[in-house]
Specification:
Blueprint: E1 2-6, E2 9-13, H1 19-25, E3 49-52, E4 59-60, E5 71-73, H2 77-92, H3 108-115, E6 138-140, H4 150-158, E7 164-167, E8 174-177, H5 193-196, E9 203-205, H6 209-217, E10 222-227, H7 248-258, E11 262-265, H8 266-286, E12 295-296, H9 301-310, H10 324-332, H11 335-340, E13 347-353, H12 357-362, E14 378-381, H13 382-391, H14 413-416, H15 423-437, E15 455-462, E16 465-473, H16 475-486, E17 494-498, H17 519-531, H18 542-552, H19 558-564
Parallel strand pairs: 1-5, 10-11, 10-13, 12-17, 13-14, 16-17
Antiparallel strand pairs: 1-2, 3-4, 3-5, 6-9, 7-8, 15-16
C-alpha cells in the first residue's frame, strides 16, 4: 500500500493506482475531458492537472501513479489558473453555441467551463471545417471536436475497426475518418460507441425527430410506434426520475400524449423472431451434413455491417430471419393493416431503438416486403425520444402507467432479454428445447449464456445431442471469435453477436452519462422483468399463436419467408 496526502486528507491506496483514481476512490473528483479508464489515458486535455508538493510543474493525474509520501493539491490557485487557461484554449477551438447543441445540459466541456467560472474566451476563435454527408446516420461536427482522441481509441481498442484517426499536424491537427476515406468508405459498423464516449457533440446521431413530428401532425397518416426491449431500461435516465418509476408503461403514456395512434412493443416481434430463427436453426440441425455451421444471429444491423465488410465470405451463415424491428414493420403494414381495414400506405411506422445502425437498416432497399414503401419509415434513438418528451413539455413525474395496444403489444419475458448480451441466444434455446422435446425447460435452464464477458461459450444437452453455442458483444471480441472460427480452433453450432459491448443495453443510441458504462445495470433491469413475466417462452405468446393461426400459418411458411426473412447478401452498405 502507498500512503499519500490529497487536499489535506491522508489516504492509503494500492501501489500502481493513478492519482486520478486515488482521488476518486476517496471522494475527491478531478475534472477531465479525455480520460477513459484503460482506453484513453493520454492526458491530452490537461484538465486533470494537479499540483505536487516539491515539484515546480503541474502533472496530469490520469496517467501518473501515486508514490509514497506524495502531497497533492487538486484545486489550488495554481491548478485552477492552469485549468481555466486550458479550457479557454479548448473553447476557442470549439463551436460554443450551446443553445443549439444536442448535448447542451449533458456536456462535459460545458460542466467543466461552468465549474471554473468561465464566462468569456480571451483567445481568437479557430474552428475546424470539413464537409460531412448529412444523410448518414452518424453525424460528425468538426467545429465541436476538442481532439480528446476518445473516438479513435474506442474504435481501435474496443471495436477494432479503426474508422477514426489524427489528420494534419500542429495547429492544423484534427480528428477525421482514417486513411483519407469518406465515412461511407470506412467500413463503419454504425455501432455508435464513438458517440456515447464523446464528451461533447462532435459526434451524434442524425436527428429524425422533425420527420416524426410532421407525421404526427398529418391527419391522413396512422402512426404506429414500436418500443425496443433495451429502451425500457434507459428511456428516462436523463429526465430526473428513478429507473423504478420509469416503467415502459409510463413511456407508453408519454407517447400517447404526443399523439401516436398505436403504441406497440418490439418484444412482440422478438417473440416472432424466436419462432422463425429457432425453427430455422432446428431445420439446419436436422440437415447438418449439408449445412455450414455455426449459424449466426441476425438481429443486430451493426453486426451485419461488420460481417459484410470484414467477413463477406461468411454472410451466408447468418440466419435469414429479419431483426425484430423489421419483422414488426412488415407485420404492421400487412397483418395489422388488414386488422384495421386500412390501406397499408397510410401507416407510418416508427421504431424507438437503442441503436444507430437501425437507422441504416430501415432504409435498406429490400426492406419493403409489405408493399407499402419502407416497412419501417423512421427510427428514433432513445436519446431522440428523450428530446421529444422535453420538447412536448411532458412532466415525467406526472405520468400514470398505460398499457400497450393489442395485439402487437403482447409479449413474453423471453423477448425482453433480447436487450442484453446473450438474451437472443437464451430466448432461442428456451423455444428450441420446447420444439424438440415437446415440453418447456426450466425458464433459467440456459442462463449460462448471461454475463458481461465479451466472449462466452456454453454447451447444452438438447434431446441427447450436444449443442455448442457462443456469445460475443463488442466488435473487437467479435473479430477474435470470428478468427478462431475461421482457423478452426473453435467449433460452434449457434453464435449470437451484438456489435455494442453489453448488447443493446449499451447501444450507441442510449442515453449518455459521461464516464459511466451502464449496459450491465440496464441488463439487470431486463432480467428482472423476465423473472416477473407471466409468460417466459416465446411460443406461449397468445398473440403470436393467433398471428400464425390467422395469417402466417406456421414458422418458415411461404408468407413468413416473404415478410419475415431476408438475404443479407442483397443489402447495400
Amino acid at each position: 500500500m502507498v500512503n499519500l496526502t490529497i487536499d489535506g486528507r491522508k489516504i492509503r491506496v494500492k501501489e500502481g493506482t493513478t492519482i486520478f483514481d486515488a482521488a476518486a476512490m476517496n471522494g475527491i473528483p478531478i475534472p477531465n475531458l479525455c480520460y477513459l479508464e484503460d482506453i484513453n489515458e493520454i492526458g491530452a486535455c490537461r484538465v486533470c492537472v494537479i499540483e505536487l508538493e516539491g515539484i515546480n510543474r503541474l502533472v496530469t493525474s490520469c496517467n501518473n501513479v501515486v508514490e509514497e509520501g506524495m502531497v497533492i493539491y487538486t484545486n489550488s490557485p495554481k491548478v485552477r489558473e492552469a485549468r481555466r487557461a486550458n479550457v479557454q484554449l479548448i473553447l476557442s477551438q470549439h463551436d460554443a453555441r450551446c443553445a443549439v447543441c444536442a448535448r447542451s445540459g449533458n456536456c462535459s466541456l460545458q460542466d467543466v467551463a461552468n465549474d471554473l467560472g468561465i464566462i468569456g474566451i480571451p483567445y481568437a476563435e479557430n474552428l475546424s471545417h470539413a464537409k460531412w454527408t448529412e444523410g448518414f446516420p452518424l453525424i460528425r461536427d468538426y467545429e465541436k471536436c476538442i481532439k480528446c482522441m476518445r473516438c479513435i481509441q474506442i474504435c481501435d481498442k474496443v471495436q477494432d475497426l479503426n474508422v477514426w484517426d489524427i489528420s494534419g499536424t500542429g495547429s492544423r491537427t484534427n480528428v477525421d475518418v482514417s486513411r483519407n476515406r469518406t465515412i461511407e468508405e470506412a467500413d463503419c459498423a454504425l455501432c455508435g460507441q464513438c458517440i456515447t464516449h464523446c464528451p461533447v457533440a462532435a459526434l451524434r446521431e442524425r436527428d429524425d425527430t422533425q420527420i416524426v413530428f410532421d407525421a404526427l401532425a398529418d391527419r391522413d397518416k396512422i402512426t404506429v410506434v414500436q418500443i425496443a426491449p433495451a429502451v425500457r431500461a434507459a428511456w428516462a435516465e436523463m429526465l430526473g426520475v428513478s429507473r423504478e418509476f420509469a416503467t415502459v408503461k409510463r413511456l407508453v403514456a408519454a407517447l400517447r400524449r404526443m399523439g401516436f395512434n398505436y403504441i406497440f412493443d418490439t418484444n412482440f416481434a422478438a417473440d416472432l423472431t424466436i419462432m422463425e430463427e429457432g425453427s430455422e436453426f432446428l431445420e439446419k440441425l436436422a440437415n447438418k451434413k449439408n449445412e455450414t455451421f455455426p449459424m449466426f444471429t441476425s438481429c443486430c444491423p451493426g453486426w451485419i455491417r461488420f460481417m459484410k465488410t470484414q467477413y463477406p465470405d461468411m454472410v451466408g451463415q447468418l440466419s435469414s430471419a429479419k431483426s425484430p424491428q423489421q419483422m414488426f414493420g412488415a407485420m404492421a403494414k400487412s397483418y395489422y393493416a388488414e386488422l384495421l381495414g386500412v390501406d397499408p400506405s397510410r401507416i407510418f411506422s416508427i421504431s424507438i431503438m437503442p441503436c444507430l445502425a437501425k437507422k441504416y437498416e430501415c432504409g435498406v432497399s429490400v426492406m419493403n416486403d409489405a408493399g407499402a414503401g419502407q416497412d419501417v419509415d423512421v427510427v428514433l434513438t432513445t436519446r431522440e425520444v428523450e428530446r421529444m418528451i422535453r420538447a412536448e413539455h411532458i412532466v415525467t413525474e406526472d405520468l400514470e402507467e398505460e398499457e400497450f395496444d393489442t395485439p402487437l403489444g403482447v409479449s413474453t419475458g423471453a423477448a425482453v432479454i433480447f436487450g442484453a448480451t446473450g438474451g437472443v441466444m437464451e430466448a432461442a434455446l428456451r423455444t428450441a428445447y420446447y420444439l424438440v422435446v415437446g415440453e418447456n425447460p426450466e425458464p433459467d435452464a440456459f442462463k449460462d449464456v448471461r454475463g458481461e464477458k465479451g466472449w462466452k461459450e456454453a454447451s447444452f444437452n438438447l434431446a441427447g445431442s450436444k449443442l455448442r453455442v457462443a456469445i460475443a458483444s463488442g466488435l473487437g471480441n467479435t473479430r477474435r471469435l470470428m478468427e478462431a472460427i475461421r482457423d478452426g480452433s473453435v467449433e460452434y453450432d449457434f453464435v449470437e453477436i451484438m456489435a455494442c459491448p453489453g448488447g443493446c443495453a449499451g447501444g450507441g443510441g442510449q442515453p449518455i452519462k459521461d464516464g459511466e458504462e451502464r449496459a450491465g445495470e440496464r441488463a439487470q433491469v431486463l432480467y428482472g422483468l423476465d423473472e416477473i413475466s407471466e409468460l417466459r417462452f416465446s411460443h406461449e405468446n397468445p398473440s403470436i399463436i393467433k398471428c400464425y393461426e390467422d395469417y402466417l400459418q406456421k414458422p418458415l411458411s411461404d408468407r413468413s419467408h416473404k415478410l419475415l426473412h431476408t438475404d443479407q447478401n442483397t443489402w447495400e452498405l
